Amino acid sequence: MSTYVDIHIIQSLPPSCVNRDDSGSPKSAVYGGVRRLRVSSQSWKRATRLYFNDLLDAKDVGVRTKRVVEVLAERITEDAPELAGDAAALAKKVFAATKIKLSSPRGKKDAPQESGYLLFLSTSQIARLAELAIASARDGETLDAKTVKKIFKEAHAVDIALFGRMVADDTDLNIDAACQVAHAISTHAAENEYDFFTAVDDEKNRSEEEDAGAGMMGTVEFSSATMYRYATVNLDMLVENLGDGNVALRALEVFIKGFCLSMPTGKQNTFANRTLPEAVVVSVRDDQPVSLVGAFEKPIRTNEADGYLTRSVEALAEHARAIEDNYGLKPLAGFVVALKGGDVLAPEGPDAPAPLGERVSFTELPGRVLEAVSPSPRVGREERA
Hints:
Helix content is 35%, strand content 21%. By secondary structure, it is α+β, with helices and mostly antiparallel strands. Helix 12 links the parallel strand 13 and strand 14.
């Protein structure tokens, strides 16, 4: 039986365009018969990964790039300067051993070859592959494909263990993601709006002979909404991917912080839309992950007095309790961080509804979650000493 950590977030987004489609419009989706604002899971996972840079050492964060030959060649040159002239060729041999196809970038025949897709490698894997390539060059031996593949399967970075890796040319090198992230959607119907803007030409404006019209003009599409965000982590798979219980706990801790506090950066200079969640509910489960998005299948309706936040929190709490009552799927532990709606999510008193979790501050949240997952069979108490 696996241990899952579900993270539910209610967060307000002011006028913004954090995630655009191919036409520059804020992404959207139809749910419950109405159009909602949407932020893709890829967008928020990217923001979470970038947040890891503030929480982890560089060696614990992976590199995702098509320029794998260039990256590996640089490491070979750094470790063995005498092989600088052959570094690119040695790097190509490493990837050839795994049947990863390489080719020159389009229109750049003289540039270092690249993989046909983004490849996820940990800093440790790059270092070990460089070491293997250097040894083969010095000994004059052919690279062993099994040894190369073994390196690809070990010493994963935290973000690789969480978000997985797909290698189209050799599925044996794939890593199943320990984390699932949902597309964030607004809890209510949302429509896009347009900002018409003009920019003044300073020099033209100084000239009395010129008209004072705009130097340029255009429109920016935007939207605003109260969002429901959800992610779940399979702790047992995270331990398997990282090979160490303590490292997995650290990974879970930084994911909770990164997912809750990160924000995609689309048009951030135009809108300054960086907000924090109004409510965070974390549930530790041993049955299955449970998204609470069904709370918003009927779009939240409101009035000027209430706004969307309060009613969204109320709907989330009502839906969570309905699932527990009707399916018997009760979390092992729950924790609530709330700027608004704390009395709804974690009510007190003998006649109050069952709380969704214990009320804690955000600084306390990761530590309390780690304490709650201690009975996990894959993360033994001895690994926490």
